[in-house]
């Protein structure tokens, strides 16, 4: 465990040592065994049936879930006292990554083990857990989560479903319609949110056979066709009073805390999907011949493969760095205290901005990956007989799941600035220093003996740039900055690139001594390729943000700072890309895991 655990958002102002971060190279033998078990299950039991599953043969999905239960894959986050394994977040994220190879099946799995199970784990009474958890973690029952409504998506508290206590006080009567419910077609237990007396937002545990619960027709979706997505209609649905989950009027805590968990797990899942799609693209590029050459030998294709390899390296580094932060924080909580899960969820909420970053960055890396894989396949990528077409359709939902990427982009700087206003992060003092640096020329020479020195200087400068932009925005708009969504989204893009790049650099620095000379060269190449991309993306966001906030001399000064603080010497960039592409095509795999 690190001597000092970073607070959420503190990466923007702190110098972080590589020894303090968790990386995929740090997986224990037990974690590797879970990963291998999961991958073998998916490749042997799910992948051969994916076509049937995509035809909505949900019997195969339910059967697969029961097999997951037999393997212990449904109980990783469940307390030992209820038959679970209660494993660390790195392990559960690693399983989420490997299960993603199963396409639509992974959606059912993720919904079940995440939003389907965790509300009960975190907020259920001992009686509720005793009654339901055993069935859920064994796969006997599948679970679903009902928050979204036809008129309320991101605005969860705008829900219209109601709950009224019966005259005898024995049950609640629920009415309303829930929309886009994953696992709706076959789930046996639902966490359903409704407003008691049209006012108090509350969660309920509702069994499929309770009178008044009606399952709607399957939605006709663009992608993830093998997952069940239905409406859940509540028509005077009778729910026993003892099935209230948590406290009356405190349903928002359940809804939002569970979404934080969903976001970091989604980051792991889409990283796994990116790896699979990339390898499929590489293999096809090695098979496809044009002009008497494999298309993998063409620079135009090789550059795509190199860029994707570097982006996935950053995605993977980010996901498991976050896993390490969460595990370190949660390890400080005494499991024997009465309010353990209250403190546990506070520990996860500490890194809510990083959870949002994981969701946004990794889902957009997957979007980039599947788009380029379709391009590599050419016309065949547009034909459903080939896997690229399914990757492309299935990917799209990930930028909507668990809060849209736009909502998450607003939350990332919003939560960081809220911490600063509470005095939990000294951003104001650091922002003042950043402003001073605008007026102070720098003649610092790089010490080439420091590993990844150019990238570390870039990171330091990008952090300064974030502070300048965020500080200028707060100074101009004060507490109304929350209404300036375009500015917040620009700031978010800088914060996202900083966390991703720093995660990649720290992982590379930590792992370098363990690698062969050849792999060291590949890691250095991946960092260089991604650093160039991150500097360009952050620079574009900063310029946009500057124009949004300022004008005149102040704008001119900030734009000069943007040019200065996004400067990155990417000498050797083409050679780095060619090295990555040639190695990936030769080995026909993702090079770093």
TrEMBL record:
Residues 461-564 form the Acyl-CoA dehydrogenase-like C-terminal domain. Residues 28-140 form the Acyl-CoA dehydrogenase/oxidase N-terminal domain. It catalyses: a 2,3-saturated acyl-CoA + A = a 2,3-dehydroacyl-CoA + AH2. It holds the Pfam family Acyl-CoA_dh_1. Keywords: FAD, Flavoprotein, Oxidoreductase. GO terms for molecular function: acyl-CoA dehydrogenase activity; flavin adenine dinucleotide binding. This is Acyl-CoA dehydrogenase. It comes from Desulfofustis glycolicus DSM 9705.
């Amino acid at each position: 465990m690190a001597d000092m655990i970073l607070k959420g958002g503190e990466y923007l102002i702190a110098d972080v040592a590589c020894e303090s971060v968790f990386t995929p190279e740090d997986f224990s033998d037990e974690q590797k065994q879970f990963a291998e078990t999961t991958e073998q299950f998916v490749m042997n039991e799910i992948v051969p049936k994916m076509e049937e599953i995509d035809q909505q043969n949900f019997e195969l999905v339910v059967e697969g879930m029961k097999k997951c239960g037999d393997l212990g894959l449904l109980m990783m986050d469940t307390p030992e006292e209820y038959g679970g394994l209660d494993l660390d977040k790195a392990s559960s994220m690693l399983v989420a990554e490997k299960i993603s190879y199963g396409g639509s099946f992974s959606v059912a799995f993720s919904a079940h083990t995440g939003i389907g199970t965790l509300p009960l784990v975190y907020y259920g009474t001992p009686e509720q857990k005793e009654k339901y958890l055993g069935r859920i973690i064994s796969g006997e029952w599948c679970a679903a989560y009902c928050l979204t409504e036809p008129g309320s998506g991101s605005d969860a508290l705008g829900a219209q479903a109601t709950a009224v206590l019966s005259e005898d006080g024995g049950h609640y009567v629920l009415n309303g319609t829930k929309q886009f419910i994953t696992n709706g077609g076959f789930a046996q237990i639902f966490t359903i949110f409704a407003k008691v007396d049209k006012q108090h937002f509350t969660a309920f545990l509702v069994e499929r056979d309770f009178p008044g619960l009606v399952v709607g027709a399957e939605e006709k979706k663009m992608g993830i066709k093998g997952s069940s997505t239905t409406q859940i209609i509540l028509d005077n649905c009778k729910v026993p009073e003892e099935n209230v989950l948590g406290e009356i009027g405190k349903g928002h805590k359940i809804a939002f805390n569970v979404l934080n968990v969903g976001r970091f797990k989604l980051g792991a899942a889409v990283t796994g999907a990116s790896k699979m799609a990339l390898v499929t693209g590489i293999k096809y590029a090695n098979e496809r011949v044009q002009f008497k050459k494999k298309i993998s030998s063409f620079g135009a294709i090789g550059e795509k493969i190199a860029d994707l390899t570097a982006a996935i390296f950053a995605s993977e580094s980010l996901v498991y760095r976050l896993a390490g932060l969460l595990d370190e924080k949660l390890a400080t909580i005494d499991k024997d205290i009465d309010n353990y899960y209250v403190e546990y969820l506070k520990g996860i909420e500490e890194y809510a901005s990083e959870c949002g970053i994981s969701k946004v960055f990794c889902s957009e890396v997957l979007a980039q990956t599947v788009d380029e894989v379709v391009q590599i396949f050419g016309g065949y990528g547009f034909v459903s007989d080939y896997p690229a077409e399914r990757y492309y359709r299935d990917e799209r939902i990930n930028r909507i799941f668990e809060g849209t990427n736009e909502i998450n982009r607003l939350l990332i700087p919003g939560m960081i600035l809220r911490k600063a206003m509470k005095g939990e992060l000294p951003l104001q003092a650091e922002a003042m220093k950043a402003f001073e640096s605008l007026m102070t020329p720098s003649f610092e020479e790089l010490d080439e003996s420091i590993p990844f020195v150019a990238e570390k200087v870039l990171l330091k400068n990008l952090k300064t740039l974030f502070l300048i932009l965020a500080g200028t925005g707060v100074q101009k708009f004060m507490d109304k900055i929350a209404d300036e969504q375009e500015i917040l989204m620009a700031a978010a893009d800088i914060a996202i690139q900083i966390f991703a790049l720093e995660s990649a650099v720290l992982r590379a620095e930590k792992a370098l001594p363990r690698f062969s000379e050849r792999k060291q060269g590949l890691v250095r190449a991946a960092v260089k390729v991604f650093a160039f991309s991150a500097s360009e993306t952050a620079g574009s966001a900063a310029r946009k943000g500057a124009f949004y906030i300022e004008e005149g001399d102040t704008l001119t000064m900030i734009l000069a700072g943007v040019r200065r603080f996004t400067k990155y010497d990417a000498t050797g960039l083409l050679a780095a890309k060619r090295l990555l592409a040639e190695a990936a095509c030769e080995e026909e795999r993702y090079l770093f895991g």
